[in-house]
Amino acid sequence: MNDVIIGIVALFVLLMLFLTGIELGFAMAVIGFMGFWMLKGIGPAFNLIAVDLFDVFTTYGFTVIPLFVLMGQIAYNAGIARRLYDASYKFIGHIPGGLAMATVAGATSFKAICGSSPATAATFSSVAVPEMDRYGYAKELSTGIVASVGTLGILLPPSVTLIIFGIITEQSIARLFMAGIIPGLLAAFFFIVVIYGWCKVNPSIGPKGERSNWSTRLKSLPEVMLVVAVFILLVIGLMNGFFTPTEAGSIGTVAVLILSVAKKDIDFGGYIKSLLESLRTACMVLTLIAGSTILGHFLAVTKIPIYAADWVAGLPINRYVVMILISFIYQIGGSFIDDLAFMILATPILYPVALKLGFDPLWFAMLVGLTVMIGCVIPPVASNVFVVKNITKTPLGVIYKGVVPFLASLVAVTILLFFFPGMATFLPNLLMK
Amino acid sequence: MEGYLKGIKGISRFMNAIAAVGLTFIMLLTTLDVILRLFKHPIVGTYELVAFTGGVVIGFAIPMTSFMRAHVYVDFLVQRFPEGRRDVVNTFTRLIVIAFFIIAGVNLFKHGWYLYSTHEVSPTLQLPFYPVVFGIAIACFLECFVMVADIVKIAGGKYE
Amino acid sequence: TPAFSQAKPIEITYAQFQPAQHFNNKLSESYAKEIEKRTNGRVKITVFSGGTLVAADKTYSGIVTGIADMGMSCMAYTRGKFPLSEVIDLPLGYKTGAAATKLINLFYEKFKPKEYSETEVMYFMAHSPGIIHSKKPVYKLDDFKGQKIRCTGLAAKVVGKLGGVPVAMPMGETYDAISRGVVDGSMAPQESVKGWRWGEVVNASTQSFGAGYTTGFFVVMNKQKWNSLPPDIQKIFREVNKEWADKNGIAWDENDKEARDWMVKIGKKIIPLSAEENAKMAALVKPLLNEYVENMKKQGLPGKEALDFCLAELKKLEK
Ligand code: NA
Ligand code: NA
Fold first, then answer.
1. Helical H runs in A337-433?
2. For chain C, which chains pass the contact test of at least 3 CB pairs under 8 Å?
3. Mean of the pLDDT values across residues C284-294?
4. Cα–Cα distance, A363 to A349 (Å, whole number)
5. In the predicted model, is pLDDT for residue A86 greater than 60?
6. Backbone angles phi, psi at C151, to 5 degrees
7. Is C124 helix (H, G, I), strand (E, B) or coil?
8. Do C79 and B37 touch (CB under 8 A)?
9. ipTM score assigned to the predicted complex
10. What sign has the CA pseudo-torsion C69, C74, C79, C84?
11. Ligand 2: centre distance to CA A10 (Å)
């Protein structure tokens, strides 16, 4: 029990330390190190730092982060992003908040290839926010949507989170992917509804423009056709198994680079600029992941996750209340340490509880997915929001003003999931027996 | 003082440039591998090379990222402090980070040495890991000098 | 004395990289329970599954330095570190996990390689033979030619020798990659098609035992931790180790069978390979065995003796 107290005190100290303005990733690493030292001795704690830093930095799967950001940066510096937004504006600029809606569609498709939620947030904060700025969109809307939209991919296939969940719980991954489609698209749809409603109420945050005539619209198309072609080729390549989602980061970047060089939209200097920007973002994201990995290893040995899960499993109360508690546990755990790591720690204990209480396995997977999505944007460690804050240099208060309505959409989808479990089970049951 | 800042920025930029070359290498290697795989002749070991290079890309970018203050932090509370107290808090956090990266650097060196002396290599290409570990260790030491640069900036009233 | 019986139990952390539902992990859990039972609660082992305490390829060094007190991982993740023991991973033509596991423990007893001296060895095991799982069924060697097969390490060489195209990628990505055709299949023990759900996306498993290779797993404890244990507790550990080594070996075969039944149930094929085709495969991978002997010679290690011993013992174990 002593270890649990050490763990709780450490988390409290960590929150205090956050307020000093220290880099969050470093703070998590420091607290993780000191906690591990207290529990296991200084020698193991020393080695833990070395092994974890080395391990996180050399994880193959994480290379998608710099690559997708690089793709976005090249698109930005070559003016591709600008032309895409200009074209979108001609088509839907007359709808209030139209460009924010285009961002939802864009980021959802981007995430379909990219697979990494913070990388999506990073790319769109450096690419989409300046474009929305140009059209006079308020920062709360532009940063709020960008911070929230990156989370959609956790439910939409091919989701790494769902693959790992499927393996831990011995479920069909194909069925899990199908289960994610309705809740994922519903969340995206709610985002668009929120944008529309919010801009109707307060037109100044997403000002609508003139309706363009069809000849102007069509004239803007050739500019974007090439990008759309690259995107479609990527999707075709993925569907037909020419490359994996991780490899798509490299393929897509090379494709966008060749396109931009061929059209003389980018020169060597522009490429270097894109590279440096991508390094900075990737380093920032991976430092957070490394810090949370070290902290996570400390928290694992305190056994707090195991005790919390055991405790809720034994509660003699209404099954829905138990489920709500379980999502809180995922919420808090996933906030402090890496979501995936926490899922691996807690799911083996919580999943049987869900089954025992009579919940459908697919339904439970969606609940966990939505919970993790919410965790990406709420304090104390709101990775997506921090990424956006850092890149756009927008105060947290402003971003949160924008995040809250989208957060509410995610909560709404979660509540709907409780009332209509079919949201998770309908498609898999229809398409796969 | 200016000389120190310039020097540290130069070295950080140099390591960052190596990281940039690494990222370009990953991109080209992966693309080539995918293309060759379509013709059933993939580059065996791409997976390992990408992971290795990834360590260089991220590790070597740390000092420059810090120099640009691009890591994630929340400063809404510190911003409200009077300047004197803010300087004290900032210096304090810089010292914590310095201590951490000295420990990280030394232990990465130790770990690299361990991998070197036990002849551990990658599964497929049988490449040694230790050069990457040493590289990240060097980046950690440089990070300490970047933190000293922060303190220099704080003393000169140029840290914002 | 009463004070002694009320003493806090000795806490031991056990690092596992396989997910919680994997039978190996369940066996580690039952191992922990058994130790707790036989020591009357004086030892409490907590198993951390899924690499949540330390990553698979960092497990051994993590135990040496004390990040974890004990743990299980594969030798293949840290190539070069256990040079002589790599004989176990060679395609010796394994047919069962029970035999492979018996062999690796016999090998350790006989050669006591220095390479494990930094830790206290609990026991070893080795997985059931790595065989072909593919979308396009492999009935004979020719069917395998040119197929892109997910594998790493030494298995990559096996795939290459058999005429396949080795492709490396993370385990977690393999399902999606097979499903979309990035790779045509995977080389792994039979149980993996169920454990990693590949059975959903491949069409057949081919019992290519002729080139059957394995992967040696170690269960080791931090030396200091081991030395701090009272002799009676050490004795209990040694007894349980022996029993669990056998259990682990048999479990691979049982899970192979379950996976085979599952494959058949969902309409996939299990293809037994003719003796002739198996012999062809064995001949093709033979050079890897010679390569090992040459390598050991360079390092001044008794590779030839190790290989001869293993081949002879395996014959006895699997006749
Ligand atoms: Na959070
Ligand atoms: Na997290």
1. 339-356, 361-377, 383-392, 396-419, 422-431
2. A, B
3. 96
4. 17
5. yes
6. -170, 165
7. strand
8. no
9. 0.91
10. positive
11. 17
Where residue B138 falls (left for φ over 0; alpha for ψ -120 to 50; beta otherwise) is alpha
Tokens of C42: 């004086």
- A368: CA distance to ligand 2 center in Å? 13
The chains found to touch B (3+ Cβ pairs under 8 angstroms) are A, C
Sheet holding C216-222, edge to edge: C43-48, C10-15, C70-74, C216-222, C119-126
Please state, in angstroms and rounded to a whole number, the distance separating the CA atoms of residues C55 and A47.
13
- Which of A117-131, A177-191, A400-414, B56-70 bottoms out in mean pLDDT, i.e. has the lowest? A117-131
Are the beta carbons of B114 and C77 separated by less than 8 Å?
A: no
Cβ-based neighbours of B14, under 8 Å, separated by 6 or more: none
8 Å CB contact between C50 and C19: yes
Token pair, residue C316, equals 């006895």
Tally the C-alpha atoms within 13 A of residue A429's C-alpha that lie toward its C-beta: 10
Record: contact A63-B57, CB cut-off 8 A:
yes
Antiparallel, parallel or unpaired: β C119-126 and C70-74: unpaired
Which of B38, B47, B140 shows the shortest C-beta gap to A60? B47
Q: Identity (one letter) of the amino acid at B128?
A: P
- The residue of chain A with its CA nearest to that of B160 is A21
Per the CB < 8 A criterion, the answer to whether A154 and A164 are in contact is no
Residue with tokens 């059931």: C128
Q: Is A18 on the interface with C (CB under 8 A)?
A: no
CA distance A137 to chain B (A): 24
Over 50: is that where the pLDDT of C196 sits? Answer: yes
- Distance from C-alpha of C134 to C-alpha of C248, rounded to nearest angstrom: 27
pLDDT recorded at residue C120: 97
Average pLDDT over residues C139-147: 94
